[in-house]
Each structure stands twice: as C-alpha cells, then as structure tokens.
Amino acid sequence: MDLLPEDADRATLLARVFDPVAGGPCVAAVRGEQVVDLTALAPTVADLLEREDAAELVRSAECSRAWPLAELAEGGLFLAPIDLQVIKAAGVTFVRSMLERVIEERAAGDPLRAEEIRTRIGEVVRGRISRLRPGSEEAARVKELLVAEGLWSQYLEVGIGPDPEIFTKAPVLSAVGTGAEIGVLARSTWNNPEPELVLAVTSAGVPVAATLGNDVNLRDFEGRSALLLTEAKDNNSSCAIGPFLRLFDEHYTLDDARRTEISLDITGTDGFELHGSSAVSEISRDVTELISHAFGPHHRYPDGFVLFTGTMFAPTEDRDTPGQGFTHKPGDVVRISAPALGALVNTVTTAEKAPDWEFGIRALMRNLAARGLR
C-alpha cells in the first residue's frame, strides 16, 4: 500500500478507524494487509499509549474483528491516529522557514513584496545564524548586531533566542487523517502546507511514537500580524495527522525519528507540481528540548499530547504571477511522506467547504458508552 512505511513488515503501526457500524472510532493495529480492532483492550489511543505494553499489544494482541487495509484506505475510513491528546506545535525551528517568517512579517502578508525583501535581507541574515545554537551567548551577540542593523524580528527571537515558539495548533479531536480534505480560508490568497514530524508524548512527558503532519498555514494572515496566528492556523480541517502512529521499539527509535527525511509533493488540477524534501536532522533545537518547553512542572497533559516539531518548508516557487510565489488552489493533492512513516495524502479545499467538524469529546464519550466501552 502507498500509505505504508517501506519496512511495514517490521513496523509497529497504530491506526484509528471510523467504523460505520459502531458509528464511531476504533483503535486498531496495522498488521500486513489487515487492520485489527483493539478497541476492547484500549477504547482510546490515549489509553493505549499510556500502557507499558503498548507496542506488544499493537503487534500481537488477539482480536475478534479485522478489516482489509485496502478497503479502509479506499473508503477514506482512516482517521487521524490520535484522539484525546492535546495538539501542540513548535514554530520557527528551522533556519529556512525562520527566514521566510521574517520575510512574511516585513512584507506584511503581501506576496508581491516578498521576493524583493527575500533578496535584500536573506543572505545577510542566513550567514549569521545558520550554525547558531538557540539561546547561546553567541546567539545573544548576533541578536545585538541584528538589532543594531534594524533586522531584528519576533521570528528571530523564537528562532535563536532562549525560548521556542510553542502553541496549540488545533482543538482535541479536530485533526483529520489521510485521505481527508484539508481546508484553507477562502479569503486567504497566500498559504502553504507545512509538512512536519509529529511526536506522540505520554502524560509523563515521554515520546513513544512518531507520525507525519500537515500544519496548514495562511502566510498572508500571520504575515500581517503574529496576533493572527490562531486565525492562520486553526480552521476547519486545517490540521492533518497520519497515516499511522509508528510506536518506538527495537526497530524504530527516537533517534530514527530524528533522522527522518520528509518529502513533499503537490499536484494541482492546473498541472502545477511542486516537489521538495527536508531533513529533521537540520532542526535548530533537539526534539526533546521542544518537548521540555511544552511539558514540565509548568504544564501537564493528563491525556498526553502530540507535538508538531516544525518545518523547513516555505515554498517560494512562483505558481502564477512572477514574484508572487506559491499558494494553494482547491483540488491540490498534498502528499507528505517519509520512508519509515508512510504517506499522509490530502486534497485541498476551503475551510468553508470542508466537512464540518461535528464529532467532539461529548460525542466520543457518548459513543464509547453506548458500545459498553470505558
């Protein structure tokens, strides 16, 4: 299957499936060409990830129900493989995307001004910060120089300063899975996908699995003002996660996740194509440092959380008018993939036309209770 990791035969893969018969989600394990139901053992993904034997259950627990993998994929029945976890995100964690944020800010969300600003300040800034360790004394000295030159920005502050940007990307249960539509606001004229490594973290702050995510972003909104971050980030179907959680085990560890190579492929109905790749190893702060800023004595998550770790993608290729760069169009197929994590595939629509988010926490609790699950 196109969704599966290259080494799927040895991967511990956790899925979440919509079951039309039950009228709700099932926690499931991907085993070869079959997807087996684990809901009787763990009614939510959050419950399962808290168990010390989680990987063993996903690999070998007996079950009474199973579905063909191909049928679920064709029917669009794979949900985001998380449920009660809070959806957090780290921003400006790669130099390339940090510079694009600076450009967005100085262009005030206007793509026509972006190329001029990119040419004027890009090389100056990049040469000074590409090898800096955020929060270091050297970074502080560079900050002083940039302030003196009038080049300081709030994005450089979180990119090389002592504290990263950590924000809540989307409400609990609002993420969509592979095969679903993803939404951008109809009135946005400059937007892009943000393909990222996503880590699943337990209530004890321990990362136990990885997957892929699309932190859909409106560059024109955030570029006008950082105070528009929520409107730029949190819209109907604006967060995609999947296809599956790959649990850490003897075949795939946190170190393997750190070495993830992410590919982005966009195909438009107008014949436009965009292809790119990035390495998580180029991240400015280690993922465990990012986790420590989200979780600790200052903040707990009783149901765990997932963390988007940031992206280095900020497409600048012109799609239509020269100098305006890239922006989505309805019908774009966005494929985010990594050899060890499979492929997350979604089609772009507007947030206004995407299916309404209706299945929230109360609906989940009622559904599980009606099925005799607790």
From TrEMBL:
Entry's Gene Ontology molecular function annotations: hydrolase activity; metal ion binding
Superkingdom classification of source: Bacteria
InterPro entries (UniProt xref): FAH, Fumarylacetoacetase-like_C, Fumarylacetoacetase_C_sf
A GO biological-process term: small molecule metabolic process
Pfam annotation, one family: FAA_hydrolase
UniProt domain Fumarylacetoacetase-like C-terminal: residue ranges: 210-348
Keywords: Hydrolase, Metal-binding
UniProt similarity note: Belongs to the FAH family.
Protein name as annotated: Fumarylacetoacetate hydrolase family protein
Organism of derivation: Amycolatopsis acidicola
